[in-house]
Amino acid sequence: MRRTKLEAETTRETILAVAERLFLESGVTEVSLEQIAVAAGFTRGAVHWHFQNKQGLLLALLDRMGLPLEQLAGQLEIDDTLDPMDELVRDMTGRLCELEMDPKRKRLSTYLVNFAAVEAPERQRNFDRKFRSSVTIIFRLAENRGRLAPHWRPEIAALAFCGMVMGLINQWLNGETEFDMRNDVTAAVRAFSSSLRAQPDDPKRPGA
Question: Which residues of 17-38 are buried (b: 16+ CB within 10 A; e: fewer)?
């Protein structure tokens, strides 16, 4: 049973990876489930079994966009030698720069975000909640390690951080040209994160 579950998960991840590659190469509307199945080395029935249809596959790719942040939160929980604030900024700014430097990635990301907003708004809200939850975990770790300014609660810091970052990303994906990811948004992320960081002369948190 354990092996069967592992094989199913491997198949699912393979299909997702192949679908993402084909969508990046050709665009979402130009790629069929049949093409994805053939390229992945599975039957079309296997694709349907894991995702039901193309819509399900697209939504799974949207969910996948939040995975690196979940993984970072998990890594930070294990390794207390890392500064949660530094790692969050490094991860976020790195991915924002990559997004701007890859037009195909921008095109696919734009499609996924707009598709979910129209076709599956609850799934989009769930993605936003999970994204914010990962950031909240990171700020709680920052609080525990004395890195978060005492006047910020982790939940509020995460709400503000995610609101700023996701708002700017969505504007940029939808055609905003007055700012860019590589310079402007990454600078905003660094500046805002600095405002959240504990300073040497900050009063200690109650109970610290």
Answer: ebbbebbbeeebeebebeebbe
